[in-house]
Amino acid sequence: MTLWRRVFVERRAVVLPLVVVLLANVAAYILLVLPLEHSVTSAASESVQAQGDLARARREATDAKNARTSSVQADDELQKFYSGVLATTFAQARDVADFWLDRTARAAGVTKKGSEYDYDTVKDSRLVRVKGTVSLEGSYGNIRRFLYAAETAKEFIVIEKVELAESGSSVGGGDTLGVKLNLSTYYVAAESK
User: Shortest CA distance to 146 belongs to which of 97, 93, 109, 98?
Assistant: First the structure.
């Protein structure tokens, strides 16, 4: 008989309960501890994911709040622009452009030769675009001064195209240039009810 078999036979009353307890411990570990360990690990990863989702949701809420605030602010600024800067009729818009051009041309030393205005509606908007063609004459330096004044003016006039052509006349020893400007401004049409 081998040593282990002899120990088992002689100490059966002690070894058998130990083997049963050992098997019960292994079964309890496999049936109870491992699933609980897995559920704890799952709960921990779900907690981390939930914290990430919460942080993302807070970021999105802040972004939405900022977008709403920006939208309201943009609407307010647009209303101020519509009511404070833009004209309300074609005649007002044409007069603003024409008077502003006359005043600015005189200040820059440029002569206004003529102007024509027309309008067209802006699709899906209350705005109406007033288009104009203006002919000016002056020295190169004065034309530059006029264009600078046009770019920095508070009036809402957009110069879309500048065409230069030598007019051939001499004023004070310098050649004058003819300038044709295509410009636009806008006005807010009355709301139709």
Answer: 109
Q: What are the residues whose beta carbons fall under 8 Å from the beta carbon of 82, sequence distance 6 or more?
A: 188
Task: Retrieve residue 10's tokens.
Answer: 């002689």
Residues whose CB falls within 8 Å of the CB of residue 119, separated by 6 or more in sequence, listed in order: 90, 93, 128, 129, 130, 131
> pLDDT tens-digit profile of 113-134?
888 888 888 888 888 888 888 8
Tell me, yes or no, whether 125 and 78 share the same domain: no
The whole model's pTM is what?
0.55
Nearest Cα neighbor of 121 from 27, 74, 187 is 187
Instruction: Kindly report the number of other CB atoms within 10 A of residue 131's CB atom.
Output: 16
How many domains does the structure of the chain reveal? 2
Paired tokens of 180: 């044709």
Looking at residue 7, its pLDDT comes to 80
